[in-house]
Amino acid sequence: MKTIKLSSFAIETVEEACSDFQYREDELINILHRCQHKLGYLPAEVQEIIAQKLQMSVAKVYGVVSFYSFFSMIPQGKHPISICMGTACYVRGAEKLVDEFKRQLRIDVGETTQDGNFSLSCLRCVGACGLAPIVMVGDKVYGRVSAKQVKDIISEYQKSMV
Amino acid sequence: MIHTHILVCGGTGCRASQAKEVQEELVSLIRDKHLSQTVQVTTTGCFGFCEKGPIVKIIPDQTFYTQVTPEDARDIIEEHIIKGRKVERLLYEDPKTKKRISDSVHMNFYKKQLRIALRNCGIVDPENIDEYIARDGYQALGRVLSIYSPDEVIDIIKKSGLRGRGGAGFPTGKKWEITSQVEATQKYVVCNADEGDPGAFMDRSILEGDPHAVIEAMAICGYCIGANKGLIYIRAEYPLAIGRLLVAIEQARKYGLLGRGILGNDFEFDIELKYGAGAFVCGEETALINSMEGRRGEPVIKPPFPAEKGYFDCPTNVNNVETFANICPIVLKGAEWFSSIGTEKSKGTKVFALAGKINNVGLIEVPMGTTLREVIFDIGGGIKGGKKFKSVQTGGPSGGCLTESSLDMPIDYETLLEEGSMMGSGGMIVMDEDDCMVAISKFYLEFTLDESCGKCAPCRIGNKRLWEILNKMTKGEATEKDLEKLIDLSHTIKDTSLCGLGQTSPNPILSTFKNFKHEYLGHVRDKQCEAGQCKDLLHYTIDAKMCVGCTACLRNCPVGAISGEKKKPHLIHQDICIKCGICYEKCKFNAILHQS
């Protein structure tokens, strides 16, 4: 596995999170939430520091990280694209959107484009089923998306990068 | 003196389509026109009519504006507020009569609803405790603390017949009684807000629209069972609900409704939030408790039940959000009032999230015993695009698909079970003739596979095998032997799994197999997908007789697989076609055929 050298900012963030939650083992999920929120993802090195600070095994920390779908060990793209795969979106054609995004970006679900601009993921129900099918890019919600619009959505962000 | 209130929906759905911008525009126009003394804009919770959001409602005349954009704000202020003329084009149009409906009272969507759990959603500002108090808020807590003993309250809840709204339907009063009888120095009240069913959003809407209703009920529960601490386990994916809960808890503390010496009594109760991180199985109470303690959310064998040994081994009472939302009205209006609503064994109302191929997607609350037909066709406005109703899925990934023949059954816990589905948390997904039942089963199995915690073998390995067989079917590679294996294995998994997730995961397969056996046989014997959804079994062609050459398909094809001249029949090039089905959706002349 590729090892990453954490920045001093990252190390400080993780240590601060552990101390804010009084190094309590039962606060592990909250600590992970905080770290992911600040750092974007949870690489193995971050989990090692947490394990050491909380005096528990790295395996236990990793067990929790890998159990919950909210936690990610891979850095997300600059523009993370999430497609809702709740039942309401599914019956209104979300699967076609997934196919189209995969085709346009040439990546699979769970991957990031080589230039690091886009990552693709599926999520479970945003709860805005009236607007199904739903695509989120960062915090922006696109409702009633058709496969035809996929290209436009992608180019909207490509333009902003030039 | 304020005489007109403009209510703007602040639910997640409407927020996603610019409701916040609408509200800001309204506020700034009111300021510009010097109307601040008489007109007030309020952000409320969900109105339920999510299909046509953002929603703006005017009080006192109940005018109901739909799909309002920030640009429409000017007309609402200048026409409606200043000149007293309703903005016709923003009123809801009845799809059948094509008439504009002037207010919410006359909309079919609301006529058959009875709102108990959702009583304040779309009415009060969830971030203002005074508005909740003005609607009898915290009166139930006051009454409980001043006149009732814990046992008396438990008795009221028991007599009301309220059952758990999270899905299983365990009598709530009974649950409270069991926890109250266990001797311990520390007990906990837990609110399960880990709404994991895809397509269900009732808990989120209640928390976003009326957080105090849950807080007050938790305090009442704390008084009854002898707990001074409450915990709300909520999905991290619900930032708006989390924000509003935090505001509400803070306000309740300031008003002395949480904390020490509540309302001058020596009762102490406070609430803390615990965050989930996206795991469906955490809706199961033992898994939820594991997760709250910072571990993997794996279920454990019951007994001991959480009522005896729960959070940090202390007696813990876990109820769902909607269950709590029913408590205060029961305390105030009495057990008889509540038990007069509903059917013999299922009392009160139930909130459903209507979604899928239905005209009025949204959140509704109806008395138990209402029929599915009333819900889907009267309230829901029927099937989208005039298509034929095929099936309604209730109970989420643990539930089943019901057909036309179940539409006139009264909805309650028992009937749904008898019909081969379940109440679940209240998701209701409507499907039409274009939905393949084998593909739907596969979709749900994919969900279970993702969400299985992996602790017990039947669920971890068995569901994987089920998914593989279904996948073979949708590709046209399965045999009749596979079909036999599918059903056999489904029963085994149901019988041998550790928790509710595995015990119910084959339900979508079993219920669709029972009601749509011919579709399974079609996939296996004839390698055909009747609904035209399974890509590998299809190819798209154009019927030259029907094609008028409008070029809609050609223009919309993402890969340029269609050629043809204007006003002449078009052609699909099979070697380029990726079977995305866009042409089929776009053709207005039924000229695109999908065949197995």
Explained architecture:
The complex is a heterodimer of chains A (162) and B (596). A four-stranded mixed beta sheet of chain A has the order 2-1-3-4, with helices on one face. In chain A, strand 3 and strand 4 form a beta hairpin. Helices cover 46% and strands 11% of the residues of chain A. By secondary structure, chain A is of the alpha+beta class. The mean pLDDT of chain A is 90. In chain B, helix 6 packs parallel to helix 10 and helix 9 packs across helix 10. The N and C termini of chain B lie far apart (68 Å). By secondary structure, chain B is of the alpha/beta class. In chain B, helix 11 links the parallel strand 8 and strand 9. The model of chain B has no long low-confidence stretch (mean pLDDT 93). Chain B folds into five domains: 108 residues, Glutaredoxin; 210 residues, NADH-ubiquinone oxidoreductase 51kDa subunit (Rossmann fold, 3-Layer(aba) Sandwich), CATH 3.40.50; 84 residues, Ubiquitin-like (UB roll); 90 residues, Up-down Bundle (de novo design (two linked rop proteins)); 58 residues, Alpha-Beta Plaits, CATH 3.30.70.20. Chain B contains 24 helices and 19 strands. In chain B, the strands form six sheets. Chain B has a five-stranded mixed beta sheet with strand order 12-11-15-13-14, with helices on both faces. A four-stranded mixed beta sheet of chain B has the order 2-1-3-4, with helices on one face. Chain B has a four-stranded parallel beta sheet with strand order 9-8-7-10, sandwiched between helices. Classes of the chains: A alpha+beta (162), B alpha/beta (596). At the A-B interface, helix 2, helix 4, helix 5 and helix 6 of A face helix 1, strand 9, strand 11, strand 15 and helix 17 of B.
